[in-house]
Amino acid sequence: MRWSALLIAATLLATGVAHGEARRVVTLAPHLAELVCAAGGCDRLVAVSAHSDFPPQLAKRPVIGDGWQVNLEAVLAQRPDLIIAWDGGTPVANITRLRQLGLRVEALPISSLDGVADALETVGGWLGTGPAAATAASAYRQRLTALRAAHRNDRPIRVVYQIETAPAYTVNAKSPISEAMAVCGGVNVFATLPTLAAAVGAEAMLAAAPEVVLYGGEENAADIRAYWSRLGSTPAARHGALYPIDADRLARAGPRLLDGIEQVCSLLDQARR
Known about the structure:
It is built from 12 helices and 10 strands. By secondary structure, the chain is of the alpha/beta class. Helix 5 (114-127) packs antiparallel against helix 6 (130-150).
């Protein structure tokens, strides 16, 4: 469909639509779909982005793209009255193009662990599911507070979160993953990287001397082990402290992030012992 035809179709859809309670919602990142469901609006989701697999019923929703590309025709076919984008993740060009079609697009920022509860309340406001969202946000805050209290006195331990091996990537202190590790006493050895995620060389890994390596369970464990066997002088390699984790829980800024923190705390306790 040509751009002019898309614009006409979107204009017809948008005519007379006010910014009331959203009834037909499209999300542009997996964690956004999780937040909508946690805020009491799972039945409002008419389409999602690729890899939106929690809660399981989302597997039945149409997919309108991935984190980088959006199928505009597929979006319009769902007649959404709200599209939720990831502020800082969804390409600005995609947000601009959708807004040019007259569609309501709200960009949701989450830059910290505490921001997840705020995001739940914001989504609840957009959907008119305020009571359910407030309950979810309160439960999240209480559980996060309890986790922080339980691990306040944990001995600091040097940690790297590794993504891939050729080259290896990791995250800086601004990543929620780094903040999650910190709850458990984990010290991100690459906290001062200039960008949120970046490649790091073997020499930098050696110099950082991590005591623990965390990596997503979807990574090739044999490749991870082979990588660290070449860096055998590091504490993590010497003690075999190479631990797979559920990356979806830790990397997606939703309520399940707390499950990821619990897993990390358990693994760091194991490494301390």
